[in-house]
Amino acid sequence: MLSIAGKPVALCDSLDRRAFLKLGGLALGGLSLPQILKAEQANKVNGDGKGVIMIYLPGGPPHQDMWDLKTDAPAEIRGEFTPIQTRVPGIEICEHFPRLASCADKLTFIRSIVGANGQHHAFQCLTGREDRNQPAGGWPSLGSVVSSVLGPRDAAIPPFVGLSPKTGHAPWGDNGQAGFLGIANAPFTPAGDGKDNLVLNGITLERLQDRRQVLASFDRFRSSVDQSGMMKGVDAFQEQAFGILTSSRLAEALDLEREPVEVRDRYGYGEDRLQDDGSTRLLTNFLMARRLVEAGVRCVTLSFSRWDWHNDNFKQGRRDFPMLDQAVSALIEDLDQRGMLENVSVVVWGEFGRTPKINSMGGRDHWPQVSCAMLAGGGMKHGQVIGATNRLGEYVTQRPVHFQEVFATLYKAMGIDVTKLTLNDLQGRPRYLVDQNQYQPIHELI
């Protein structure tokens, strides 16, 4: 963790001492901050004002207990929850999501997500793709693509921020990899892996500027001996790095105490404690995501709780469903009231669904055959259900929706045309953002 202290007036525009800007994983000597903050601009499009918030539910949430209840199924499949009517006539969801039911006209429930490879990680939710047969460098996540294509909206605000903590099962704590787009497009993590590794106390703005001059001298030397052109643009990366360190904008976005208490209460607070090998139930992350997007971040990823419920499925649902209901509904309403919902897309999902049959421990096991998702915002046509499964929730009977179709839709909402735009991999081969001739934006939403 890098903590920058000093005179409040000199650093971070009078930000007081209790709100020091702490930036995980920064290392001035190693130049990691400049690398992380700048994206390639070759395929830049106009994405001003657009954003996306991805809420990942690690472990695989039970589709038939959330948005696709099976009241006509046998008891060993139907489960303990009952459906309730939403604000949209004909659409029912689980009784433990009353607040989302009240704003269902702003939501789309997808009951027919297919294409899951069954692996217990966030990769497919973050990239839309499987992790096998990847190009050199690997597939980039949605946030890294957005960073590369659109770049930062402001030098003091990184385009891609990840709020997911490090988890016991490491693939669940993935905020999104940059893949072949390079470390410059990796997510900025306010509480990253380096939080306990680097603490710099007493660094004033003057000392920071001195270090800036030293780094500039090294870079001028490296540029003079570099024959490949790879050093081109490093100065611009550093401008963003120092822009963040000497501006209060990011620190203010991360300071939730600037929000009125009634807003914080509406989102809730949750638990800042890892759930076994999963994520936290930290509801304040949902509010922080809104603040970050409002400040200029283009993509925010976050994770919530642990959903690998092989036992006590309904006990855990009674605990987690209301918390998710409170935080997500607060986020949707908040974005709407601030006039941001039209431009900001929200997606909630996990890596796969759960077995129709309840096991002997009262849980549901892995079921990659079908899963669910919820979408909001982004200028899409909401207030609908897309897709359907059979009476037992085993497989899709209407309108299968692949992970990549969701990604194509999110990209379109950001102003990115997946039929035209390509990004080069490490071998110089142009790569489409989704598999061409197979997946397009979800036509029901556009």
Search tags:
single chain; 446 residues; alpha/beta; eight-stranded mixed β-sheet; two-stranded antiparallel ribbon; 12 helices; 20 strands; globular; disordered N terminus; DUF1501; Tat (Twin-arginine translocation) pathway signal sequence
Describe the secondary-structure layout:
Elements: E1 2-3, E2 22-23, H1 32-37, E3 51-56, H2 75-78, E4 83-85, E5 92-94, H3 98-102, E6 107-114, H4 123-127, H5 142-150, E7 160-162, H6 205-225, H7 234-245, H8 249-254, H9 261-267, E8 270-271, E9 281-282, H10 284-295, E10 299-303, H11 313-337, E11 344-349, E12 353-354, E13 366-367, E14 371-377, E15 384-386, E16 388-389, E17 396-398, E18 401-402, H12 403-413, E19 422-424, E20 430-432
Parallel strand pairs: 3-10, 3-11, 6-15, 6-18, 7-10
Antiparallel strand pairs: 1-2, 4-5, 6-14, 8-9, 11-14, 12-13, 16-17, 19-20
Helix pairs in contact: 6-7, 10-11
Query: What's the domain count?
Result: 1
Identify low-pLDDT runs: 1-44, 193-201, 224-234
Tell me how many strands there are: 20
- Proportion of strand residues: 15-25%
> Any idea what the radius of gyration is?
22 Å
Explain this structure to me?
It is a single chain. The protein is an alpha/beta fold. The chain has one domain. 28% of the residues lie in helices and 15% in strands. The chain is built from twelve helices and 20 strands. It has helices at 32-37, 75-78, 98-102, 123-127, 142-150, 205-225, 234-245, 249-254, 261-267, 284-295, 313-337, 403-413; strands spanning 2-3, 22-23, 51-56, 83-85, 92-94, 107-114, 160-162, 270-271, 281-282, 299-303, 344-349, 353-354, 366-367, 371-377, 384-386, 388-389, 396-398, 401-402, 422-424, 430-432. Strands 3, 6, 7, 10, 11, 14, 15 and 18 form an eight-stranded mixed sheet that branches. Strand 19 and strand 20 (430-432) form a beta hairpin. Helix 6 (205-225) runs antiparallel to helix 7 and helix 10 (284-295) packs parallel to helix 11. The longest helix has 25 residues, at 313-337. The chain is globular and about 70 Å long. Mean pLDDT is 85; it is low at 1-44, 193-201 and 224-234.
